[in-house]
Structures are given as structure tokens and as C-alpha cells.
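Project standup — Tuesday

K.O.: blocked on the structure for the chain from last sprint. Re-posting the sequence here as requested.
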Amino acid sequence: MITTPAMVFLFILAIIALSMSVPLSKIWSRHLREMREADRSGAADVEAELAELRDRVEVLERIVTDERRGLDREFDRLEGENGGRNGSDRR
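H.V.: unblocked you, prediction finished:
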């Protein structure tokens, strides 16, 4: 078999490509592993924030409900003091 400069060049190029594929595959697999870990921790952060927001909404709902009941009692008290003379319906 006769070796030409092109064949030698291709052989050297193939050796270089193969020798670079191992470190590149290690880098790529490490990158993928880090991205999966980041996704997991990000999901945990989102779930924690969601739980906190749900708690806050529950508190706000209680406040609004309690204030509405307190307002109803206050209106009833005021109507009792005025003897119902106002005649307006608040609801």
C-alpha cells in the first residue's frame, strides 16, 4: 500500500479527534450532571416559595373574611343605635 500525504494527514487527524473525544465527553457529562442538580434545587426553591405563597393567601383570606364579619357587626350595631332610621340596605 502506498501512503500519500493526504492519507497521513487523515490518519493524524483521526488520532487527534479520537484523543479529544474522551475529555470532551467527560466535560459534557459533568455539565449535564450539574444542570440536573441545578434543576432539582430550582424546583425545590419554587415549591418552597409556592408553599409560602399559599400560606400568605390563607392568612389574607382569613383577614378579609374576619373584616367582613366585623363590618357586618358594626353595621348592625350602628343600625341598632339609629333605630333603623337610615333605611338603606348595605348588602
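K.O.: great, moving the ticket to review. The longest helix spans residues 5-82. Residues 71 and 77 are 10 Å apart (CA to CA).
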